[in-house]
Amino acid sequence: MKPLPIEGAWLHTPTVHPDARGTFHEAYRADEFTRRLGRPMDLAQMNVSVSRRGVVRGVHFADVPPGQAKYVTCPRGAILDVVVDVRTGSPTYGSWEAVELDETNRRSLYLAEGLGHAFVALTDDATVVYLCSEPYAPEREHGLHPFDPSLAIAWPDGITPALSPKDAAAPTLREAEEAGILPSYEECVAYGRRPRGHGTSLWSAQGVVRPNQ
Predict the structure, then answer these.
(1) Residue 22 near residue 30 (C-beta atoms within 8 A)
(2) Could you give the residue numbers annotated as active site?
(3) Which listed residue, of 27, 166, 183, 207, carries a Cα 20 to 30 Å from 137's Cα?
């Protein structure tokens, strides 16, 4: 686990063990995760999406509290995974980081509560699995337009993007800030330092369990 320049985003690069049968690696290990990040991850929901080449999903984020931390991996195909700092008051507010996750490198990306998440499928049948700290709750979910010029995310060349109607109609970062729907850096940091239990939090019981991407 290594931190990315955006606070709260970490990249996990596993040791992959190949042999004549195939490969084996540890995709997630709670004790190592807690040791590196200084906090456990409550697991409340696991989502799976399958996308054709060019599909863009996001930028998605949730109200904090409780937010929705995510641990994302791509067991089939390849994606360019993007974390966006949408936390007002953050030292890196409005910046983004992108990493390729694929079936060869087996890497995973962790995003703390309050960070925005998006990806583009680089292959057909790109399969994305992500563990979530909270179930999906539509009343707390928001999005930003992935092609907002102020974000200037460097999406790959040579790909014709395909967006959902909801993502295509999403506001820009400035519009979201003016509407007051962005999480604050101070609230996100405070929430991340809260005492933790195990499994689904009290907030989760208020959510509706359904995929959000």
Answers:
(1) no
(2) 60, 130
(3) 27
- 202 in any annotated domain: no
Q: Considering the chain, what is the average pLDDT of its residues?
A: 91
Question: Tokens 């703390």 correspond to what residue?
Answer: 112
Return the closest-CA partner of residue 80 out of 159, 144, 20: 159
Among candidates 117, 187, 135, which has minimal Cα distance to 108? 117
65 upstream amide cis, omega within 30 of 0 = yes
Q: Residue 188: inside a domain, yes or no? A: yes
Question: Do 119 and 128 touch, CB atoms closer than 8 A?
Answer: yes
DSSP reduced 3-state for 89: coil
Classify each residue of 137-167 as buried b or exposed e, where b means 16 or more C-beta atoms within 10 Å of its C-beta.
beebbbbbbbbbeebebebeeeeeebbeeeb
Q: Which helix (H) or strand (E) holds 6?
A: none
Does residue 175 sit within a domain? yes
